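Whiteboard transcription, Tuesday session. T.W. wrote the structure tokens on the left side:
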């Protein structure tokens, strides 16, 4: 039996709905091309390259999730610990590690002398834990004094947090030793146009006791940070490079997490096409004639998630108490070959072909790299990890040309 988890774009969706609302239309004309996964070059090990593996994770039950090792140090010291099996997530921001696997005495972030604790919302639930400070190293890239979240604490979870859904504060519920969010933005709540995370967002809390926590505002500097943004160089984005999946599914896949875009010989945009995002990090995907303006590309989601609104419609998985694996996924009677069109705010559009297979059948195999796994999501098109197989996918942080960031592939 496999536990299945979905980590779609989180604070960009939830917090921005509070801050800015949704939107992002473009008056640009569009040009359309069609792309399909290809066999591409995977970057060799280097100072700005970390190996990533799709292998089921630390519990051997997590399909379509890419994992990397992260080294964490007490700030300014050589007291360090390397933590394996950290989920790579382009749909969130910041490093989050289970307190049960990280044993370092890291400095606690405080306000008014009281500990700061974060409730970080994912669509599948939340993580709750204190904000602490660490030096972070991935490959040979280093960031100093990074606010990170230590997942799990004895502090009581406020109702505004627990009401978000299930807790993901243990290895069993998270399925990973942590998450490294390498998404579009530098902070996990602030947006380029709204750098402070307001108390009404119920994300950051001051906890004077283990039973009392009050929501607070957090400046950009106080928030959990994207460690990439704090690297000395190679700090403007990442590339995820994964090989194509032979036959749709295979046991494992190994690729690279490359830091920086256009900063080294091994991270040039090359022939990749840029799709800029709106003020909350979304672009538009049109599927079966319906445009979804709140769409995104997210390595932390373990499938394609979209609403199949075609005439026939794909069947949802038949789930029973003895066979719950397919809950939340599609189970078509035969593999469906589909297409959708992505359009950036810059007007560039692109038709993408993809396939969806019977999830219940997929989960009976010993394969963890599944190129044709998908499930329902009515509000947006979530291009999860299957989209990354056979593509070099760029996640670009805001620039003068693209003030809200961009994806490219």
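and on the right, the sequence the group agreed on:
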């Amino acid at each position: 039996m496999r536990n299945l988890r979905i980590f779609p774009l989180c604070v960009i969706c939830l917090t921005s709905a509070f801050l800015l609302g949704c939107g992002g239309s473009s008056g640009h004309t569009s040009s359309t091309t069609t792309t399909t996964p290809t066999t591409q070059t995977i970057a060799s090990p280097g100072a700005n390259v970390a190996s990533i593996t799709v292998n089921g994770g630390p519990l051997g039950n997590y399909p379509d999730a890419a994992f990397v090792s992260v080294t964490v140090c007490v700030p300014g010291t050589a007291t360090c610990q390397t933590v394996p099996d950290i989920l790579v997530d382009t749909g969130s921001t910041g490093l989050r590690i289970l307190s049960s696997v990280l044993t370092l005495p890291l400095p606690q972030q405080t306000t008014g002398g009281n500990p700061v604790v974060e409730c970080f919302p994912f669509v599948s639930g939340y993580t709750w834990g204190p904000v602490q400070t660490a030096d972070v190293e991935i490959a040979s890239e280093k960031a100093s004094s990074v606010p990170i979240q230590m997942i799990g604490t004895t502090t009581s979870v406020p109702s505004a947090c627990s009401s978000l859904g299930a807790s993901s504060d243990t290895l069993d519920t998270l399925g990973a030793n942590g998450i490294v969010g390498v998404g579009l933005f530098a902070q996990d709540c602030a947006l380029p146009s709204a750098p402070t995370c307001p108390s009404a967002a119920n994300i950051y809390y001051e906890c004077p006791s283990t039973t009392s926590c009050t929501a607070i505002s957090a400046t950009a500097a106080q928030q959990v940070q994207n460690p990439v943004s704090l690297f000395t160089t190679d700090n403007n984005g990442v590339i995820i490079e994964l090989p194509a999946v032979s036959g749709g599914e295979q046991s494992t896949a190994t690729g690279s997490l490359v830091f920086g875009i256009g900063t080294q010989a091994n991270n040039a945009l090359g022939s990749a096409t840029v799709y800029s995002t709106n003020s909350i990090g979304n672009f538009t995907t049109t599927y079966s004639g319906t445009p979804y303006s709140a769409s995104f590309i997210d390595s932390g989601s373990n499938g394609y998630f979209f609403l199949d609104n075609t005439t026939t419609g794909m069947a949802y998985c038949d789930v029973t108490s003895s066979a719950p694996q397919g809950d939340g996924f599609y189970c078509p009677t035969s593999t469906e070959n589909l297409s959708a069109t992505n359009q950036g705010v810059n007007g560039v559009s692109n038709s993408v072909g993809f396939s969806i297979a019977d999830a219940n059948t997929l989960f009976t195999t010993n394969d963890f790299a599944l190129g044709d796994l998908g499930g329902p999501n009515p509000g947006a098109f979530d291009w999860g990890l299957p989209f990354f197989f056979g593509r070099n996918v760029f996640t670009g942080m805001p620039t003068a040309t693209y003030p809200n960031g961009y994806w490219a592939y």
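Someone added at the bottom: The mean pLDDT is 88.
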